[in-house]
Task: structure prediction
Amino acid sequence: MTSGSLERYNTELTNPGLVILEMVAESKEDAAAQLAAKLFEQGRISDLDGFLRDVNAREHQMATGLPGGIGLPHARSEYVKEISIAVGVTKFDHSLNFGAMDGPATVILLIATPASSFSAHLEVLATLARSLFKENFRESLRRAHDAEVIAELINSSLVFFDH
Result:
């Protein structure tokens, strides 16, 4: 799959309906389940339990915490219809352990990619990670308190899909 064929995803990777503000979760699995439910509601995944099995299997292979308080659970799955990102920003003073060396996560991004989209999956992960390594980008996500702003920040960080 080439980057050119991904153009239609550019503004559709996430939207305000895929953002959870003030998220409170019992565990990283619970956080992933809450975010996956949003994807399921929008018809972006066909089987909620099946997709979560794939996410949790991936999580067991390697921790998905990034420095700076980011959790990045992700999976390529046969149950994903289109590349999508659901975002959770935890409630103040609430965080979740995603295995990052520097501590727990307060921003969680669940990336769902169709099983066949291997190169697209890697491209999304790499591009998003580059943005997330910038402190000002992470802080913008944390401080937005507005689902539309958060969705726009994520979508605009993935403008490489236009090329």
Notes: The domain at 8-157 is CATH 3.40.930.10 (Mannitol-specific EII; Chain A). The longest strand covers residues 107-114. The chain has one domain: 8-157.
